[in-house]
Fold this sequence. Notes:
It is built from 24 helices and two strands. By secondary structure, the chain is mainly alpha-helical. It has a two-stranded antiparallel ribbon with strand order 1-2. Helix 11 runs antiparallel to helix 12 (235-246) and helix 15 runs parallel beside helix 17 (325-342).
Amino acid sequence: xxxxxxxxxxxxxxxxxxxxxxxxxxxxxxxxxxxxxxxxxxxxxxxxxxxxxxxxxxxxxxxxxxxxxxxxxxxxxxxxxxxxxxxxxxxxxxxxxxxxxxxxxxxxxxxxxxxxxxxxxxxxxxxxxxxxxxxxxxxxxxxxxxxxxxxxxxxxxxxxxxxxxxxxxxxxxxxxxxxxxxxxxxxxxxxxxxxxxxxxxxxxxxxxxxxxxxxxxxxxxxxxxxxxxxxxxxxxxxxxxxxxxxxxxxxxxxxxxxxxxxxxxxxxxxxxxxxxxxxxxxxxxxxxxxxxxxxxxxxxxxxxxxxxxxxxxxxxxxxxxxxxxxxxxxxxxxxxxxxxxxxxxxxxxxxxxxxxxxxxxxxxxxxxxxxxxxxxxxxxxxxxxxxxxxxxxxxxxxxxxxxxxxxxxxxxxxxxxxxxxxxxxxxxxxxxxxxxxxxxxxxxxxxxxxxxxxxxxxxxxxxxxxxxxxxxxxxxxxxxxxxx
Length: 484
């Protein structure tokens, strides 16, 4: 699909207009800002401090509970990790990338042509995730990650006859059944495993290719988020969000994890719907169908990602249109119909998964701890900049809701509502009780949409917030072993 602004002339014109209208955009931002600058900065720091206290409490209380009862089922609460100080071949690259993006990322993001920014963001994000994974070394950090006893690649040979395996899939979810699936296979619809089966079929089998797929495709989520923010909240905020998306602390777990790939599929579903709803593509209906197809696929990658509907709904509200709904729903039906006709029943599988979940660690881990410690994991994976940005989003919410009636939303208010929709999805996942621990990895599709909130912070403080988010991520990756 070709967007209306894909020609060089249009792109150069838009870039010039962006620079020309910077003062006007800043004035609009200030008009929508519900707090004065000094007070807002104090509140940002307070939010970050409270988030740090939450993490500290989760560590201290978690260690006490785990040492006393062992019920948390993690070695280094609240993270699924163990103490393992180490360096690796990715250390120099990760440190260099962090320094370069912190030093030059914000001004470059403001000046690069839009398509150049997208290319640079994808390349840098991919390099960042790979470098973080290589801190653990090639074998342990990349090649072996998706081949352990819990992972998808352990069952590739059981999908020689895909239709027969799909018909029989639900018979192996519950522990105790003959040949029950490994944890990750049982814990997800078969679309997740089929991805790696198909990679194997085209000659890209093994842990290394699976890891490369997850990192390269997963890193494209940055592009989807930038495109979505641009069409819904303006290019200025998208550019300001770019460095925070590129240096996402979640890279600690995205490299290498299938959840990074899931996040990208879900993100492109949102981006295509946003392009269709704002009619920023030549064929909006085709974009809406494509977004629906990806959302349908998303629901067959992970049971919990149906909650991304909250973000999709926010897109329609912000665009003030229901026009893409029908083609989107038609696209979204394709994958469920195909799997159902092949003999896989999503609802049956989900209910069996709940049973399997409570047979294992989910039945032991205490809800009273994880319902708030999960949020500490989210703080570590999203970063303190996202925390401060979410606080700003919440401050914009009352005015944004009022402005929805007239459609006179400021760009910052639009971004705030998009971010808060993702927060609602995350909180719903938390309250469900089906996400007790490991949310630093599992919640990547939701956490991605919290990162652009950092664009609401003052531009002159961007480097400080980048440091505040990146340094903890580097420490976690060097001090802990976060393997599943």
